[in-house]
From TrEMBL, chain A:
Record domain DUF112: where: 19-439
Membrane-spanning ranges: 12-33, 45-66, 106-129, 136-161, 167-186, 198-218, 259-279, 314-338, 358-378, 390-408, 465-487
Name of the featured protein: Putative tricarboxylic transport membrane protein
Pfam families: TctA (PF01970)
Origin superkingdom: Bacteria
Native source organism of the sequence: Sagittula marina
Keywords: Membrane, Transmembrane, Transmembrane helix
TrEMBL record, chain B:
UniProt entry keywords in alphabetical sequence: Receptor, Signal
Pfam annotation, one family: TctC
UniProt signal peptide: 1-23
Domain of life: Bacteria
InterPro entries per the UniProt record, alphabetical: BUG, Bug_dom1
Name assigned to this protein: Tripartite-type tricarboxylate transporter receptor subunit TctC
Similarity comment: Belongs to the UPF0065 (bug) family.
Length: 498, 317
């Protein structure tokens, strides 16, 4: 089972494949550092351009970008108190005060080392857990997959934080989009308005590019970022070998990694939640919790280790079951499908070199993060914030249009993408969360198709959905996700009264 | 000044295009429209066959594969049907899918929209059962199906495809009834079989060739044993008249000039004797069966009649 892992290693070191990871990491840091631009956006804009590339080059780029962006988000979080990616919100708590004290350089170094450790832990989790899990996934028939999809939808709606009602509305919109096209069993047209282009349903990449890339780009063009440059001029960066001995956060790193990995595996939850939980746990167990929020480096470490630890582990359900738990995992699956790699247990059997190579690329991406982001260029990456935003925005728009057009070579998709972009922009302004839309589209499709298949297998008897242990466990998990937060709130309220 | 250039250019272009009609076909690159994404079975067939067709057309002929995926191949085949019948646009053609789509929905083409060049691949159906089902011979399967109508669940890749027609033929020939579970594609259907979530499956031989130790493969729906699995008995040998498969070939728009049609069919017909081509196709799990011209047209017509007959009695949507 693990011998395939070693067998895949030589391919990873082919210079094109390795260069892809290096370029990906650098590009990821740049993207992550630009407030508003996220890994999801970068990868979805990239996917259409990878049609002609070797699979490992394409996947290496994606793995690199994902790792890089999760750290890149820390740069503006520390220097400007603007999280570069949603996952970097918790990094601002202690990172920004550090920068104000003139320790911005150290804060960024803590961030990059922690990110790297989180990424490495996550890559190991993927390598160790995915192969055995891929064997177990044969147990997942239509009724089990249906419940996984329902569980994923429930957790993204109720665990994302904020407002579950808005989350539910977003998810419903996504599920509605999943209904467009020919139905999965009979092939009847639904909401296609006689357009052949709509028969296959809405391509996930088109939705993602519209939803995730257009609103931030509009933002980019609209609001000039006030880079006062105050904090970036007093970074006080030491060489990393001097900074390293000052980082003694092993407990925090371990806890953050485990939390991040676990949250990554759960469908629906994502990096920002991992970072918050890790930050809270680390503060709760700290000897001097009162210093947190005033520039405690360990706070930066806690947040950054966790938001990188969910990267590779988010791919565990995606690669083994074919069910992506996060938007980024969904885009990466899209990237795999482009190369004819069907996720699921057969992937490990048919294309071991590619799937295990991809895992290695995650590991090397995480290691490269320290080399590229840490020792070489902490200071130069801090200057990224001075890039001219209108120029950047225009370049991204052009890439988006070309990319979406090239998926099927038709303008129809471009208009569709712009339409989704408009919807995304409005939703963004009204503070509707966007991840539930994407997961609604993906998991909604899974849920419908597998529910109908399961019912056919059971010849119409709904009890077929509750007939085995795996299904029942998933039902219990779903229920706990839905009622858990409410019960917890009641419990806390009643304790307050008493 | 610019105007003069323009006029000369237009005049030049007209002379050139007039010349093209007189010259020997092919004068320019021939476009082959594939209705599926790059990397799929049909695409692989087109790209594998292209250099050999170039060789047999001679005179530096060049084939350019263009992917127009979408709507189960319909976008591409509609484009090919409506192209100029000058021999410079060809298309791939899948049976029975392309004909079934003219029955179960409104299509922008029918069986008379094409010049039939050659069917190249015939991937025969196989009946498999999961190890968990215990139905490890055809007799056991049919016995169970007769004893408990509709109790056996059958995984397949879609309704209205070759798998579905194979099952209907089986049901008609043996007077049995099964419960159809149409997955989205053959890979998920096969995974469900491996996991024992459905008892039986109808797939194609190229899809199960490597899984013979994990599934019970009960037989193959060909007239003679398939080269892919020479040990696998046909249904005919087991006393069941069942021949069916998924076919992929090449068409051109209807109304092709006769000399062009003859030249193309001649090129395609040489494929069946080209060992290098046969090896390349075997390497990509594509069982070759070349049927050209009139015979291919007849084959399509027969399949249409079968599908239409099925649709009249038991429409699948």
């Amino acid at each position: 089972m693990y011998s395939d892992l070693l067998h895949a290693l030589p391919d990873v070191f082919a210079w094109t494949n390795f260069a892809a990871v290096v370029i990906g990491v650098i590009a990821g840091i740049v993207v992550g550092a630009m407030p508003g631009l996220s890994a999801t956006m970068a990868i979805s804009v990239l996917v259409p351009f990878t049609f002609g590339l070797e699979p490992l080059v394409a996947l290496g780029l994606m793995a690199g970008i994902y790792n890089g962006a999760m750290y890149g988000g820390a740069i503006p979080a520390v220097l400007l108190r603007i999280p570069g990616t949603p996952a970097a919100v918790a990094t601002t708590f202690d990172g920004y005060p550090m920068a104000q004290k003139g320790e911005g350089g150290f804060a960024l170094q803590v961030a990059v080392v922690s990110s790297s450790i989180g990424g490495i832990a996550s890559a190991f989790a993927l390598m160790l857990l995915a192969p055995p899990l891929s064997k177990v996934t044969l147990l997942f028939g239509p009724s089990e997959v249906f419940w996984v999809a329902v569980f994923g939808l429930a957790s993204i709606i109720f665990l994302l934080g904020g407002n579950p009602i808005k989350g539910l509305i977003s998810a419903c919109f996504g599920v509605f989009v999943s209904v467009i096209g020919s139905d999965p069993i009979y092939g009847n047209d639904r909401f296609t308005f006689g357009q052949l282009e709509m028969l296959d349903g809405i391509n996930i990449v088109i939705l993602l590019v519209g939803l995730y890339a257009l609103p931030p780009v509009i933002d980019l063009l609209e609001t000039p970022l006030k880079t006062d440059g105050v904090n970036s001029s007093k970074l006080g960066t030491e060489p990393i070998w001097k900074a390293l001995p000052r980082m003694n956060y092993w407990k925090t790193w371990l806890r953050g990694s485990l939390l991040g990995i676990w949250i990554g595996i759960l469908p629906g939850a994502g990096g920002s939640m991992a970072a918050f939980m890790s930050y809270n746990e680390a503060r709760r167990t700290s000897k001097n919790p009162e210093k947190w929020g005033e520039g405690e480096p360990e706070g930066v470490a806690a947040a950054e280790v966790a938001n990188n630890a969910d990267t590779a582990s988010a791919l565990i359900p995606a690669l083994t079951l074919g069910i992506p738990g996060t938007a980024v995992a969904a885009v990466m699956l899209g990237g795999l499908l482009v190369h004819g790699l069907q996720p699921g247990p057969m992937l490990f059997r048919d294309n071991p070199d590619i799937v295990f190579g991809f895992m290695w690329q995650f590991l090397f991406g995480a290691i490269l993060l320290v080399l590229l982001g840490g020792s070489l260029a902490t200071n130069s990456f801090a200057r990224l914030l001075n890039l001219p935003r209108p120029l950047l925005g225009s370049v991204i728009i052009v890439l988006m249009l070309i990319g979406v057009y090239s998926i099927h070579g038709r303008m129809f998709d471009v208009y569709l993408m712009l339409g989704f972009g408009a919807i995304g922009w409005v939703m963004d302004r009204l503070k509707f969360p966007l991840p539930p839309v994407v997961l609604g589209l993906i998991l909604g499709g899974f849920a419908e198709e597998n529910l109908r298949l399961a019912l056919r297998i059971g010849r119409g008897d709904p009890m077929v959905l509750f007939q085995n242990t795996t299904s029942l466990i998933l039902v219990a998990l779903t229920v706990s996700v839905v009622v858990g937060p409410t019960l917890k709130k009641r419990f806390i309220d009643s304790r307050k009264k008493a | 000044m610019l105007n003069i250039f323009k006029k000369t250019a237009i005049a030049g272009a007209m002379i050139l295009s007039a010349g093209a009609a007189l010259a020997e076909y092919p004068e320019k690159p021939i476009e082959v429209i594939v209705g599926y994404s790059a990397g799929g079975g049909t695409d692989v067939m087109a790209r594998t066959a292209a250099p050999f067709i170039e060789k047999y057309l001679g005179d530096g002929a060049s084939l350019v594969v263009k992917n127009m995926p979408g709507a189960s191949g319909q976008i591409g085949v509609t484009e090919a049907a409506n192209a100029d019948p000058d021999g410079y646009t060809l298309g791939t053609f899948n049976l029975p899918g392309m004909m079934a789509r003219t029955i179960d929905r409104e299509a922008g083409y029918d069986r008379d929209s094409f010049t039939y060049l050659a069917n190249v691949v015939n991937d025969p159906n196989v009946i498999v059962t999961s190890k968990a089902s215990g139905l490890d011979t055809l007799d056991k399967l049919l016995e169970e199906a007769k004893a408990n109508p509709l109790a056996i669940t059958v995984g397949m890749s879609s309704l209205g495809g070759d798998d579905h027609f194979a099952l209907i033929k089986l049901e008609q020939a043996t007077d049995t009834e099964f419960t159809i579970v149409p997955f989205k594609g053959s890979a998920p259907a096969r995974t469900a079989l491996l996991g024992g979530h459905v008892a039986m499956g109808i797939l194609n031989i190229s899809e199960v060739a490597e899984f013979q130790d994990q599934l019970n493969v009960l037989g193959v729906a060909t007239k003679e044993r398939s080269q892919f699995a020479p040990d696998l008995p046909t249904f005919k040998e087991q006393g069941l008249d069942l021949v069916n498969g998924s076919m992929r070939g090449f068409i051109a728009p209807a109304g092709l000039p006769e000399d062009v049609q003859a030249k193309l069919i001649d090129a395609f017909s040489q494929l069946s004797d080209d060992q290098e081509f046969l090896d390349a196709m075997a390497a990509t799990a594509n069982p070759v069966e070349v049927v050209t011209g009139e015979e291919f047209k007849q084959l399509t017509s027969d399949l249409y009649d079968l599908a239409n007959g099925v649709w009249q009695t038991t429409p699948w949507n």
